[in-house]
Amino acid sequence: MYDQTMTLSDKYCRTPAIETLSGTALLDSLKEIIEAWREQAIPYRHPWPQSKTDPTYESDQLVVTIEPKWLVKAKYDLDRIMALPENWDSYGSPSIPEVLYKNAENFLRSLEVEDIEPPFVAPVSGGGIQFEWSNGDRELEVEFIELYVFGYLKIVKDEIVEQGDFSTDDYNSARLLIKWFKTGQS
Amino acid sequence: MSVTIPTHYKEQFVDESESLWRGISEFQIKRNPDGTYRPSSGAFKSTDLSVDIASKTTPEKSVRNFAALSGFLAEVPIKLGYPVIEDPVEGNDAHALIKGKIKQGHAREIANASEWVIEPKHPF
């Protein structure tokens, strides 16, 4: 008989000398240990509550994401203008639609690897979002007003040198715009 | 038989020489590298953009609760293809509309042409 005051682990640590057991007996002994452990085991839980809406939630693992400082600042400014109520400009402009926020956020995320300054983030009268970057004489404006396209404006010395629009999921074009902004080369 | 259109139904076009004022929200004021401020072109993108006709009001009345007041000549939007019409509303006889949907490049041109009538009071 085992000592009843022993803990489970202590108790099962006192196994008979392994060399005295036959193969079957050893297997049975191990099964017994595993069953005993299963009965007393407490399911593992995270030490803090974690919501599935938390952007870091992924399956049962905590994923740590590191964003560049410019992106953190840009997203902060984006969230700030998303909180604007109806008629935020006193001219009857509506709040910014969620879909435009998603488009703008995806655009920023597509530039995550870029080493750039955070853009000036402005709401657009009539409903929309605008990013503005300045680099000496060069400026880049990107607007999110339409559902499926973003518009851009390349400016040099206050003169518009190119304007157009791209599909909101054309992230390659987004990166080319930033390349132009950084280097002046298309 | 001739039909007389009541005066208030007629669109009164604003002359090119008039100055137009537009109130700017604090969220649409960008700081330049030299420390000065300028309105974002986002402040001039809208369909039928509201403005005040300068000759019919005062800066103090127009600025209301805006962070700043910018001004530009009516000829700027008119030459870009946007007519400006008088549109008096209750409590604001100076109200006018820049008709049409202002494109991104044109909004930037209007922003470039604008000057502060009342500069931003606070750092943004």
Structural account:
The complex is a heterodimer of chains A (186) and B (124). Chain A is α+β, with helices and mostly antiparallel strands and 186 residues long. Chain A has two domains: 8-40; 64-183, no CATH class. Chain A contains five helices and seven strands. In chain A, the strands form two sheets. Chain A has a five-stranded antiparallel β-sheet. In chain A, strand 3 and strand 4 form a beta hairpin. In chain B, the strands form two sheets. Chain B has a six-stranded antiparallel β-sheet with strand order 6-7-4-1-5-8. Chain B has a two-stranded antiparallel sheet with strand order 2-3. Chain B has one domain. Chain B is of the alpha+beta class and 124 residues long. Chain B is 16% helix and 31% strand. Chain B contains three helices and eight strands. Chain B has helices at 59-63, 75-79, 104-113; strands at residues 19-24, 29-31, 37-39, 47-53, 68-73, 84-86, 95-101, 115-118. Chain B is globular and about 45 Å long.
Outline of the structure:
Chain A is of the alpha+beta class and 186 residues long.
Write the layout of secondary structure elements.
The complex is a heterodimer of chains A (186) and B (124).
Chain A: H1 8-13, H2 23-40, E1 57-58, E2 61-62, H3 69-82, H4 98-109, E3 120-123, E4 129-135, E5 138-144, E6 149-156, E7 159-167, H5 171-183
Antiparallel strand pairs in A: 1-2, 3-4, 4-5, 5-6, 6-7
Helix pairs in contact in A: 3-4
Chain B: E1 19-24, E2 29-31, E3 37-39, E4 47-53, H1 59-63, E5 68-73, H2 75-79, E6 84-86, E7 95-101, H3 104-113, E8 115-118
